[in-house]
Every structure is written in C-alpha cells, then in structure tokens.
Amino acid sequence: MSEALCDLEHMNNFGDMNDSDLISMYGKLITELKARNIIRTKNVVGDLGERFAIDYYSNSNNLESLSDAPPSTKSIDAIGEHGNRYAIKSITGNLTGVFYGLPHKDSDEVAEKLFDYLLIVIFSDNYEAEAICELT
C-alpha cells in the first residue's frame, strides 16, 4: 500500500496513532496547505480565515472580488477590485488577532486609518467557517 493511502487510513483513526505519527501527519498537512497556497505563514488560523474570506467574497456576485495583499503588507490582508483595503481576522474562541500600528488605548494620539474594511471570520471548534462579519 502506498504511503499516501496509509496516511489516509490513519486520518480516520487519529486516536490509534502514536504521538510521532500524529505530529508527522500535521507537518505533512501544513506542507500541503502551503503548496496549495491555502496558507502562507505559520499562523494557520489567520491564514485559513484569509483564504476563506477572499474566496467567499470573490465567488459572491454582490461582494467585491478580493485578492491577497502582497506578502509583508502592513495592516491589510486583501485588496478589493475597487481598491478597498481589507484587514481579515479570525476567531476560534472569543479572541481575535492583534491590530498592529494602533495607538495604545489610553493614548491621546489619533489613530491612522489602516484599512477600509475589517472582516472577522468566525470558525467553529472544528475550523468550519460559521460567519463573516464586515465592519467599516
């Protein structure tokens, strides 16, 4: 039996796998997700949220089509077909990612506009997207 078929057999029996095999399976999954450009970094939850939001918006007739912002672009994750800048955050519990570049909450400094829209992707505990919230 090929290694790929053996791996697929194990996928349904995670409880039967030893720790080493389970960790190895995770590594193979991460490698494949990167090869398919589903994730781009080691921030798996954030990358999954970005991919889901970009795909959802781009495949919806009444929403602006989005594309990935260039790598290392600060404060935004996607750019809309009309030039709008989107920050995308993902939630798997009750916390989102961090917003860099904002003044401290007690500061008198006026915050610079970093993006046009904020998309919050809400995932279930099984990483199934449940909702996308769009904020201006």
Describe the model.
The protein is α+β, with helices and mostly antiparallel strands and 136 residues long. The chain has two domains: 36 residues, no CATH class; 93 residues, no CATH class. It contains three helices and five strands. It has a five-stranded mixed sheet with strand order 1-2-3-4-5, with helices on one face. Strand 4 and strand 5 form a beta hairpin. The protein is globular, with a radius of gyration of 18 Å. The termini are far apart. The mean pLDDT is 86.
Question: Which features does this protein show?
Answer:
5 strands, alpha+beta, 136 residues, 20% strand
Any chance you could write out the topology, listing elements then pairs?
Blueprint: H1 3-11, H2 19-35, H3 44-58, E1 66-68, E2 78-80, E3 85-91, E4 117-123, E5 129-135
Parallel strand pairs: 3-4
Antiparallel strand pairs: 1-2, 2-3, 4-5
Task: Describe the global form.
Answer: globular
Largest sheet: 5 strands, mixed
Overall structural domain count: 2
Strand order of the largest sheet: 1-2-3-4-5
- Taken as a percent bin, the fraction of beta residues is 15-25%
Q: Can you give the helix content as a percent range?
A: 25-40%
* Averaged pLDDT: 86
Number of helices: 3
Low-confidence stretches: none
End-to-end span in angstroms? Answer: 53 Å
Order of helices and strands: HHHEEEEE
Rg value: 18 Å
Number of beta-strand segments? 5
Which structural class fits the helix and strand makeup?
Answer: alpha+beta
